[in-house]
């Protein structure tokens, strides 16, 4: 199984939780340094809690399942103070 496939398998374990909030995630690249670069989709891309989702959920799931990964980054994190940030409907 390729590194991308291993990361996708790890993401599949948490995707139902992301989808329940109207979000998802896509793997954009895995760098030569084994850094996973993700794009947050749907409500995950505009939610001010996305940094917590990334660190507490996505990053842990990937690094636990694929120990050779050194870091997980999102290319489109919303800042918690962004005036355009929107909470998913069930978090309002």
From TrEMBL:
Biological process terms in GO annotation: iron-sulfur cluster assembly
GO molecular function: iron ion binding; iron-sulfur cluster binding; structural molecule activity
Pfam families: NifU (PF01106)
Domain NIF system FeS cluster assembly NifU C-terminal: 7-73
Protein family: Belongs to the NifU family.
Record's protein name: NifU family protein
């Amino acid at each position: 199984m390729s590194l991308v496939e291993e990361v996708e398998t790890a993401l599949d374990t948490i995707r139902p939780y992301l989808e329940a909030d109207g979000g998802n995630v896509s793997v954009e690249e895995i760098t030569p340094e084994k850094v996973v670069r993700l794009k947050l989709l749907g409500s995950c891309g505009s939610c001010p809690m996305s940094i917590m989702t990334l660190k507490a959920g996505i990053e842990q799931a990937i690094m636990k399942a694929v120990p050779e990964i050194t870091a997980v980054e999102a290319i489109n994190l919303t800042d918690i103070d962004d005036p355009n940030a929107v909470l998913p409907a069930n978090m309002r």
